[in-house]
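> @MW can you paste both from yesterday?
MW: sure, first one:
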Amino acid sequence: MIGRSALPLISLMVVLSLSIISAEAQLSATFYDATCPNASTIIRNSIRRAISAERRMAASLIRLHFHDCFVQGCDASILLDETSTIQSEKTARPNDNSVRGYEVIEAAKREVERACPGLVSCADVLTLAARDASVAVGGPSWSVKLGRRDSTTANRDVANTDLPSPFSDLQVLIDAFDKKGLNARDMVALSGAHTLGQSQCFLFRGRIYSNGTDIDAGFASTRRRGCPQTGGDSNLAALDLVTPNSFDNNYFRNLVQRKGLLQSDQVLFTGSTAAIVSQYSGNPRTFAADFATAMIKMSEIEPTLGQNGIIRRVCSAIN
């Protein structure tokens, strides 16, 4: 039988134990300092090599991180291959034959595994890779908190419903980001990642042949040369015609000039977000700072922490 005098001590121990568990299950910028102190450097060097070999990969890695975080949070679920028990997100409509960079993350993971087996999650590798990709092409850097664990499941259905469409109108976009805890300013800043990368013809064909008042006629004519009305669905065009491989604010300058490639780009220069676009078009430092802030917020959407999930040895498969 436990005496009354022992109860406060037991209660204190329970509280302390819960506090320790809670403290451990938090993202931290120093998470691997004791267990794998070179993790960030190993990943950064691997990502730099990949982008040096193909500069377009910077955009792909930032997009890969975005498409991961919008489905089940930032848990590397997008990296899982199809199995008898897993419906891969790779084959969801927004990702299939579109999202790329999987092999770059696997390569970085292999290097980390050699140095620190079983310690660094694929989710953290992907989060660091997005930051390092930004820096590699002249974009901002930011402090990345670590400690995510990898999911054991994927969710193709959520990938099909929650990832924003390039055909969306403004309110649909605002709602999609709000669902993930990101406000309209975060959304506009994150959309600025389209200062990098390319898009397939079938995603912007309707816009460039619309003869609409929201598209510059000369810009539309230029884009039609590489995107016929029929055929050529996978033909690529730069999202930013001016500096497609450098991180800058030209994307927003394009929107002000009605030269956004996707409908979901140009609608940002309407309604409640038009003022933000104007601000970013005239102030690259403000855009860079807001982009970094929004990337941090996005990277912390519903992380898998503590004893949940696993640390995958290979990012495309469950251990």
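MW: second:
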Amino acid sequence: MADFECKNSNLGVFEPGNLKVQTIKVKKSDSSPPPPTQLYIVAPVSEGTYPLLLFCHGYCVQNSWYSQLLHHISSHGYIIVAPKLYKCMLIALNNEVKTAAKVTDWLCTGLRSVLPQKVQPDLSRVALSGHGRGGKIAFSLALGHVPTSLKFKALLGIDPVACRNPPTWPEPEILTYVPRSFDLSIPVGVIGTGLGNQPKCMMPPFAPNGINHAEFFNESKPPCSYFLAMNCGGYDMLDESKAALASLVCKSGKGSKALMRKGVGGIVVAFLMAYLGGQDDDLKAIVDAPTIAPITLDPVIFVKE
């Protein structure tokens, strides 16, 4: 089977939603109170109150490099806030989780002032997500390593990866290698990639076994779900040009990455619909029949209790 083989899908979650969305780039000087860092926000422009997703970007990438994926998700009726977690893409400091926590607190007081007119965030329905190292930051924040004023309703890691914590890498350490050890009472979803644990030429894998998506799922308590995008790489959900750039140093699936973005976007939307909206038909459909997705998902696991 070729990488990114196209399949027929009857699920609308894998296609852009019906809502027109707007990109909002917020600097510290653009809002009062000012956000603790620069923000990349995608929100519907139609009047309404929408659930909120806080998205943490991965290591060595920018928050804006996910624009196509975030637009897909937002067009189904979600406000997405993606903070810039550190100034230099090649340097990660110990304040990433603290920055994400400060942004979470800012949402209560500052978000409404930067959104389109008559667009309101529903702060009672907030989910947390992150990609790569940002997935670890999302898990760390959900686990309460830094307290926040908002409570998260759901957590979704997109190819999350920890590190083996040599002296130059930042804390916190969250993996315990004990099944179901994460002290979380909210639904957890994990999307993994089948190529992330493979090297690229002389470059080591970006998500080696033992610190990648499989371990994050293993340590999650029910209800938890797991989707492995078998023929995809860890950066294939980035915007097309950025994914092509990343493929120079990390293993990548063949062909256009549009189907990967559709696949990940659809899973995220189905997960949010289930746990922020109480509509779990699409999530159940993907779990019961993974071949309806536009990418090869194998395995798909759902643990209810």
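> thanks! The beta strands are 21-26, 39-44, 48-56, 79-83, 119-131, 154-158, 188-193, 224-229, 297-303.
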